[in-house]
Design brief:
Oligomer: homodimer
Largest interface: A-B, 97 and 97 residues
Strand order of the largest sheet of chain A: 3-4-19-13-21-11
Radius of gyration of chain A: 25 Å
Protein name (chains A, B): JmjC domain-containing protein 7
Number of helices of chain A: 8
Organism (chains A, B): Paraphaeosphaeria minitans
Distance between the termini of chain A: 61 Å
Helix content of chain A: 10-25%
Number of strands of chain A: 21
Shape of chain A: globular
Largest sheet of chain A: 6 strands, mixed
Structural class of chain A: alpha+beta
Pfam family, one (chains A, B): Cupin_8
InterPro entries (chains A, B): Cupin_8, JmjC_dom, RmlC-like_jellyroll
Order of helices and strands of chain A: EEHEHEHHEEEEEHEHEEEEEEEEEEEHH
Strand content of chain A: 25-35%
C-alpha cells in the first residue's frame, strides 16, 4: 500500500493524534470522573423505587436484574400462610421452647460502627447466646410494650439459612422459593432467613453478594438504599473489630444493658487484632464521616408494609430500621439468590470501589503534604 | 447513650480507622486497578463465545443482556427467505438499477485509521457516491473474481436503517423484528441494515450504542470482539478527520484506485479541522499502537457462516473482516435495538473509559517530566 496523496494537511504535526476527550466536567481529574459516575447514574435513573402491584414474570424480573434496580411488590406476599397465620401466639405455639440463637446488644446495634469519638470507632458484633424461642420473643415484645423495660436488645437475625434450620417448623408457611426469581436466575435460593426483632434494632449500612427478595410479615421495615456506584460515598474504612460481651452475673437471663461491655477481638496474649472493612457514613446523618462524594448520594427510601416484597439487588448498600405491630414484633423473611459474578457487573463494581479508595488515599496524601498541623487534626479531617 | 466499657484496647490510636484495603495486586496504583479490572473480568468469564443451536427465549436472551455477553446461534436464520433466495441474480432482479449509496475506498478501509507514520494518523471516511444497485454489485463481484481488477473497493454499508429505506424491496425476505429481542427489550428495532461487500472490505475496531443482532446471509464474517472493560486496551485517541475523494475524471465510473486522495475535513478557508475519538489499536497487530493495558486483552473470535446469528452486546468493540461465497459476495443483515442507558452499565462503562484516559494522560505527564529527549521521540513512545 503506497501512501496516498493527502489534500489540506496544514502541518505534519496536525496529524499527530491528541488525547481523546473524556467529556468530564471540571479539569478532568480522577475526582471529577468519580463524581460524574455518580451524577450520570442519577441522571439516568429515577430517584424513587418502582412499585409493582403484582409479582413480576421471570422476564420482567430479569429486566430489573439486568439494570440492577430495586422494586417493591405491594401486597405481593399477602396470600402466603405466613401473612395470614403468623402472630405472637402462633409463633410461640410452633417454636415453643426450641433453643434459638439470639443477638444481644445494648442499643440494637449489631454488626455496626460504634463511634467512640470523631476520630475513633469500632466495628462491634453482637453478643450471641441461646434462649428458648418463647423467652426471646417475650423479651422482644416486652422491650417494645413495657415502659419499665431497661434490658439489652434481642434480635433473632442469624443469616445462615435459619428458616430451613433453627426455624424449620415455620418454613411450611412460606414458599420454598420465589418462583420468578428461581426461574430467571436458574437457581434455588442459597439461603432463606427468618428475622424477628423490635424497633430498637437497626441494621447498619452494608452490602451483600446476593440478589435478595425481602418479605415483610409483621410490622414495618424502613430501607435506605444506595446503588453500587455510590461506593465512593459510604466512606468504607478498615475498622477495629470488637464483640459485645456480657459482664453481668452468669445466672442472670435478662442481660442488663449496663452490664454489657465491648471486647476488642484478638486482644488476648499472642492474638492479632483485626480490622473489618465497613461503611462509616450514615445516609441519615450525612454531615458526619462524609467523603467528598457523599453529597452526591441520592438514597432511595422505601417502607415495607405487611405482605410487601422488596427486590434488593446485589451489591446495593442498605440500612434498615423497623417498626413493630401492636404485639411489639417486627418479623420478616428473606431469600438470598447467588449473585452472577460473570459479565462485567462484579468486576466493574469492584473497580469503582478500588478507584474510590485510591482517590481517598491520594487526597489524604495531598492533605498530609500540605498540612503541618498535629497528626490528630489531620486524622480528624480525614476520617 | 453513655460510652460503653471497652476491654482489650491497647492504645487510643488502635481505634482510629485505617484506609480500607483495595485487594489490588502490586503497589495499589490506578494502573493496578485498571489492570485488575480487565484480568478479573477474564477470570470470571469464558474466553470463547457461547454457541446456541436454536434461538433463545426472551428470558434466555435477557440473561445474556444482563451479563452483556455475546452468543452465536448456529443456523438460527436458516429458515429465513433471505437465506433460501438471496444470490447475485435474485438481488439484481429485485433491486435492478435502483440507485444506492456506495462507500468507495482504495483498500476497503472505510471509517478507519490510516497510519501515515508511527506517530501520525488520520481517521478516513469513505468517498460516498450513488450507483445503480446492479452496477455496484457487479463491481463488488468483479473485484473478488476478476484477477485483472485494480479499481477501488465498493461497499454497500449505509447504516441508516437502509433495509427499510434504500433496500425496502428486499425487506420482505427477512423478519420485521427478532421476536426474542423485541419481547425482551420491549422495543422494536431502531434500525435494520443491509450490508453487501467483498473480502477487500474491513470494519475497523469500534463500538456502538446498540444491542445488535447480526445475521449472515452470503459468505462469512469474521468478528474480533472485545468487552467494554477493555476500553483501556484500545488506545482511543482523537484523530484528525479526513474523507476519501475521487481525483479522477468525473466521467469515469470505475474509480481507479490511484485516483483516490485523502482530503482533510474542514481544510477550506475559515473551516475547522475536527478530531474524531477512535480506537487506534488493532487486536490483530497487538504490538503496534498498544497501551500498557493492551496486553491484557483477550479478544473473542467468531466466524459467522451463512444462516448464523450473532448477538453482539452494546458497547462491545468489534473488528470485522469478511469472506465471499462463490459468487464473490458477502451479504449480511443486522438489527439494532436501543441500548438501555439506565441501570449502572452505561455510566459504569463511561467511567472505565474516563479512568483509562486519565491514566494514559498521567502516564504521559510522568513521561514528559522524566524524558528530556526531543518532542518527536516522546510522541513516538506515547502514541
Amino acid at each position: 500500500m503506497t501512501e496516498p496523496r493527502i489534500i489540506g494537511l496544514k502541518s505534519r504535526g496536525q496529524a499527530v493524534p491528541r488525547p481523546a476527550p473524556t467529556g468530564l466536567d471540571g479539569e478532568g481529574t480522577l475526582h471529577d470522573a468519580v463524581r460524574d459516575l455518580i451524577t450520570a447514574y442519577h441522571d439516568l435513573n429515577p430517584t424513587t423505587i418502582d412499585e409493582l402491584h403484582e409479582e413480576p414474570s421471570p422476564l420482567e424480573f430479569m429486566r430489573y436484574v439486568a439494570r440492577n434496580r430495586p422494586f417493591v411488590v405491594r401486597k405481593g406476599a399477602s396470600s402466603w400462610p405466613s401473612h395470614k397465620k403468623w402472630n405472637a401466639a402462633y409463633l410461640s405455639s410452633i417454636m415453643g421452647s426450641t433453643p434459638v440463637n439470639v443477638a444481644i446488644t445494648p442499643h440494637g446495634n449489631a454488626d455496626a460502627i460504634l463511634h467512640l469519638s470523631p476520630t475513633r470507632a469500632l466495628f462491634v458484633k453482637p453478643f450471641e447466646t441461646t434462649l428458648p424461642f418463647s423467652a426471646a420473643q417475650s423479651r422482644i415484645q416486652a422491650q417494645e410494650l413495657d415502659p419499665a423495660w431497661s434490658n439489652a436488645t434481642c434480635y433473632l437475625q442469624t443469616q445462615n439459612d435459619n428458616l430451613r434450620g433453627e426455624y424449620a417448623t415455620l418454613f411450611q408457611d412460606v414458599p420454598a422459593s420465589i418462583s420468578w426469581a428461581r426461574i430467571a436466575l436458574k437457581n434455588d435460593a442459597d439461603a432463606i432467613n427468618f428475622w424477628l426483632g423490635n424497633s430498637a434494632s437497626t441494621t447498619a449500612l452494608h452490602k451483600d453478594n446476593y440478589e435478595n427478595v425481602y418479605v415483610q410479615v409483621l410490622g414495618q421495615k424502613h430501607f435506605v438504599l444506595l446503588p453500587p456506584v455510590e461506593a465512593p460515598c459510604v466512606n468504607e474504612r478498615a475498622v477495629l473489630a470488637a464483640t459485645y460481651a456480657y459482664g453481668g452475673s452468669p445466672e442472670s437471663d435478662s442481660h442488663v444493658k449496663e452490664d454489657m461491655v465491648v471486647s476488642i477481638d484478638g486482644a488476648g496474649e499472642g492474638e492479632d487484632q483485626s480490622y473489618v472493612p465497613f461503611a462509616t457514613w450514615d445516609p441519615d446523618r450525612p454531615e458526619e464521616h462524609a467523603t467528598p462524594f457523599s453529597r452526591y448520594s441520592q438514597p432511595l427510601r422505601v417502607t415495607l408494609e405487611e405482605g410487601d416484597m422488596l427486590y434488593l439487588p446485589a451489591l446495593w448498600y442498605h440500612q434498615v430500621s423497623q417498626s413493630c405491630n401492636v404485639e411489639g414484633l417486627c418479623c420478616a423473611v428473606n431469600y438470598w439468590y447467588d449473585l452472577d459474578f460473570s459479565g462485567g457487573f462484579w468486576a466493574g463494581s469492584s473497580f469503582v470501589r478500588d478507584v474510590a479508595l485510591l482517590e481517598e488515599r491520594r487526597r489524604k496524601e495531598v492533605h498530609d503534604d500540605t498540612e503541618s498541623g498535629a497528626k490528630q487534626v489531620q486524622e480528624s479531617t480525614w476520617f
